Amino acid sequence: MHDHPSSAADGTGAQGRTATPSAPPNATPPPPSGPGAAASRYGWVVVGAGFLVMFACLGLARFAFGVLLPPTAAALDLSYAQRGYLGTGYFAGYLAMVALAPALTRRVGNRNAVALGLALIGATLCAVGATDSFGAALALYSLTGVGSGAANIAMMALIAGWFPPSLRGTATGAVIAGNGMGIIYSGYMVPEVVRAAGADGWRAGWVLLGALCAAVCVVAWVLLRDAPGSRPDRAQAAGTPRPPGLLGRFPAFSADERGRLAHLGCIYLLFGLTYMVYGSFIVTTLVDEYGLGQDAAGRFWAWVGFFSLLSGPLFGRLSDATSRRAGLMATFAVQTVAYALAGLAQGETAVWISVALYGLSAWAIPTIMTATVADLLGPARTAAGFSCITFFFAVGQVAGPTAAGWVAELTGSFAPAYLASACCTVLAVLLSRTLRRVRGADRATA
Question: Rounded distance, CA 116 to CA 122, Å?
Fold first, then answer.
């Protein structure tokens, strides 16, 4: 499939070559019109705003969960299984949003979808800090997952519209690095807030996260712009079938595209199944199994954030320079070693190496997946395609923490869950090896 904009799309038809209308004085700079074009300057403003969006919608809303889980579980008297259910509730909400995301972005645009998602995250995180029961916390944190799904999917689609294939991996990686900043913040600051606030410190931690997400919502609303051409106009939209949320029923995709998306989805499912087992429970493992204090465990988690700042840009650039397939294989190989080291429990040095490797590879898979879908479908259909593969990913996220919680309840340790994760990422390496080339992209999957 060739990913070249038509003359109608870039405004250079037969008549357009002889007369180009002037732009309004305050018009947003357009994105590049072809794969070899340089990214517009405003595209990098969008990258900066996107960094903050990911800092909030995933870095704080999702990855601060592991740091706040021990004091929250102690205050609400949660079992290991209930801790797993709490994480699963978030991912179930995320999964529900995946099915609705294409319709939401078509109706309100990617920018508005991001803002709505962040507003929901801010409100529900603050509310979690006021709850006194497991049931209420589960319901509220599930709604946080809905907001994260809306903001994340819309942001990934929005960034793809501003850059050609040769820069999509790099730009997406820079945006996803915001996750790492969220981890650094939660690893260092959240334990300090919890300790300073005393017995209700866990409540202060949740409220602080919610307030930060609300502030980012305002910034995103001001700075983000939908890329010109990323949304169909009313006439075009009226003649286009509305895509439902299930892959097999997407009339906008050809049979070949559906097959490729299913392949990518299976790989993404394995990522979702594994990476949040580590992300949700490594701090609990350090506290319960290694005897570290909350502050020391938080510092371990902050180092995940430091290393992960390199993850998206490093592996995104690798996939731009070599191939999407090579980038996926390298990332899953690194994650296999990280999970195996955590599962074998060979001491603190092995844990440090595991943390470093997990951080270095943490955001590479979403970065490369976003670029691959944009290569395959083009910016205008990226939201729909990314939503499809994210459905697989979200199923994995729902199953992973739940299964890990059950295993820990039975064995008293998360080590078997980490070893199972390593086996899954080996399978992901093999599936990535069989990806086919996307024709028309500057660098593709071969």
Answer: 10
pLDDT recorded at residue 191 = 86
For the chain, percent helix, then strand, then coil, each to nearest 5? 75, 0, 25
How buried is 236 (Cβ within 10 angstroms: 0-12 exposed, 13-18 middle, 19+ buried)?
A: exposed
The pLDDT score that the predictor gives to residue 170 is: 81
The number of folded domains in the chain is 1
Task: Quote the tokens at residue 243.
Answer: 């895509």
Tens-digit pLDDT profile for residues 375-393: 888 877 877 888 889 889 8
Closest by CA to 261, choosing from 385, 101, 160, is 385
Assigned token pair, 143 = 């709604």
237 in a domain, yes or no? no
Q: State the CATH number of the domain containing residue 110.
A: 1.20.1250.20
Is residue 130 a part of any domain in this protein? yes
- Give the Cα separation of 381 and 415 in Å (integer): 40
Q: Considering the chain, what is the average pLDDT of its residues?
A: 81
pTM of the predicted model as reported, rounded to 2 decimal places: 0.69
Does 5 fall in a domain? Answer: no
Which residues lie closer than 8 Å to 314 by C-beta, 6 or more apart? 173, 360, 364
